[in-house]
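User: Predict the structure for this protein chain, please.
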Amino acid sequence: MRAAIVSNGEIHDLENAANIMKDCHFIVCADGGTEYVLKCGLMPNAVVGDLDSVGQDVLKEIGNLKCKIIKYPREKDYTDTQLAIDYAISQGADEIMMLGSIGSRIDHSLANILLMIKLVKAGITPCIINENNIIYITDNNIKLRGKPGDTVSLIPVGGDVTDVYTSGLKYGLNGNTLSMGEPIGVSNVFLYDEASVAVGKGFLLVIKSND
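Assistant: Here is the predicted structure, written as structure tokens:
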């Protein structure tokens, strides 16, 4: 089951966000992400978090429309986004599309990007999407769709990534090691409409970007 997790970061293209959410089976809002979903003309299946970023009138309205509301204390060990993801997984989600997960708060952005490692370890397929980026983390194989000239960057996280193979990219890798702290995998280029990346060991951040 594919779930959309909508957080309170930055979403500028509501039409694009709405199309992504419509392609999901389940929508879970992390606190203030509720406002984005409602602006898209959609209704979340659940709202999760300490609920300090969403109006009480909004909560009352969606609660009357059978949206599940799960409130946590403000002082808690987990972020609202992680709690929303955990709830979606408890409902059967095995694919997570994260919207509003990155923005001006670099701490929240990094935390949400690295949170994908936990999901990959659990066998969940995650990605983060905004207007300019689609962000994945893989420790195995991944296929990418794009068009010739599109940009994709391969960045190791948590340590070196070994035995990296690519196809369909201008600067090919054939069993190379990408070392943590050496960004030589930045700004590779699609040659065709599809590319693939395979990883032997480690976690690789794969970012398809547009300016």
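The chain has five helices and 13 strands.
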